[in-house]
Amino acid sequence: MTSAPLAARLSVPSGPLFFPVTAYGPDGAVDLDVYRAHVRRGVDAGAAAVFACCGTGEFHALTPEEFQSCVRAAVEETAGRVPVVAGAGYGTALAVRYARLAEDAGADGLLAMPPYLVTAGQEGLLRHYRELAAATSLDLVVYQRDNAVFTPETVVELARTDGVIGFKDGVGDLDLMQRIVSAVRSEAPGDFLYFNGLPTAELTALAYRGIGITLCSSAVFCFAPEIALAFHQALNAGDFAGDTVVDQLLDGFYRPFVDLRAQGRGYAVSLVKAGVRLRGLDVGEVRPPLHEPAEEHVKQLAQLIERGYELLEEGV
C-alpha cells in the first residue's frame, strides 16, 4: 500500500488503466459480489489503476447510494495496491455531492465528467470545475468530451487550479490537443497529466504519443486483459516500427473491434459488457437508456476475442 500522490501513481502506469463495468443482478439491482470479483480480476491481471463508476461503469445510470457502494467496494478490493479514481458529474451541486461520496468511500481521486445537458461557455466550465476541485480534497482529472470542450486558454487555467492534476480527452481532435499541451507547457509548466480517453484508446495510442500523450484508458482490459496488457507493454517498449506486436494487434483485433463497436449507439459500453459476459463473468445487461448489442454482433465479438487470443498464442 502506498500514500504517494495520485499524480505520481498515474504518471508512469505499470499496466493499463482499468474502467470496470458495473454488475447488475437478474433483478436489475447492483450486484456487489460480482462487481468485486470483476475489480479483483482486473487488479490481479495487472491494472495500474481502477476508474470506478465512470463512463464504462455507467455512472449516468447509478443512484448516489449505488455509486458510493461500488466505489467503496473497489477501494476495498484494491486494498491500496492501485489507486481508485471515481466518476463525478451532472451539475455543480450534484458533482460536489458525488465527489464527497467518493471521498467518504476512500477513493484516491475523481474523473470529472461533463456537466449535464447544458452546453456552457468557457467561463462557466472553468467555474464548474474550480468549484468541484475546491469542494473536496481529492485530486481531479477533467474529462473533455461531448458538451465540455475546452480552449487551450481554459486548460491553462485548469492546470493552475489547486487539485486539478490532469486532463482526459474524449474528443479526438489532435490539433486542439497539441495546442492545449503546448499552451500548458508554456504558461503553466509542471507535471500536468494528459490521458487519451477515446472509447477504444488503443486505436489512437500511436497518434497521441506523437504529441506526448502516453496515458490511455482501456475498455478492452475489462474482457481481454491479456490482450490489453500485451499491447500496453509493447507500446511502452517502443515496439511499433514495422510488423510488430502493436501493428498486429491493431490490424487483427483493435481495428475490427472499433468497426464492430460503431455498429450501434452505446456499444462503447454495452459491447464491452457483453465481452465480460462472454469471458465467464455474468455482470448483467446495461441499464436504459442504453440497450444490449444485437445477437449477431455478440457472435462477432466472440469470434474477435478468440482471434485476439490466437494472435497472442502465435507470439505477436
Walk me through what this model shows.
With 316 residues, this protein is α/β, with parallel strands linked by helices. It contains twelve helices and eight strands. An eight-stranded parallel barrel has the order 1-2-3-4-5-6-7-8, surrounded by five helices. Strand 2, helix 3 and strand 3 form a beta-alpha-beta unit. The chain is globular. The model has no long low-confidence stretch (mean pLDDT 95).
How are the elements arranged and paired?
Layout: H1 6-11, E1 17-18, H2 32-44, E2 49-52, H3 64-78, E3 84-88, H4 92-104, E4 109-112, H5 122-134, E5 139-144, H6 152-159, E6 164-169, H7 174-187, E7 193-196, H8 205-209, E8 215-218, H9 225-236, H10 245-261, H11 267-278, H12 295-313
Helix pairs in contact: 2-3, 3-4, 4-5, 6-7, 10-12, 11-12
What's this entry about, in short?
The protein has 316 residues and is of the alpha/beta class. 47% of the residues lie in helices and 11% in strands. The chain has helices at 6-11, 32-44, 64-78, 92-104, 122-134, 152-159, 174-187, 205-209, 225-236, 245-261, 267-278, 295-313, and strands at 17-18, 49-52, 84-88, 109-112, 139-144, 164-169, 193-196, 215-218.
| Largest sheet data | 8 strands, parallel, barrel
Name the beta content range: 5-15%
DSSP E strands, number? 8
Structural class: alpha/beta
SSE order in H/E notation? HEHEHEHEHEHEHEHEHHHH
What would you call the shape?
Answer: globular
Q: Helix count? A: 12
Mean pLDDT: 95
Straight-line distance between termini: 34 Å
**Low-confidence runs:** none
Question: Strands of the largest sheet, in order across it?
Answer: 1-2-3-4-5-6-7-8
Helix content: 40-55%
> Which radius of gyration do the C-alpha atoms yield?
18 Å
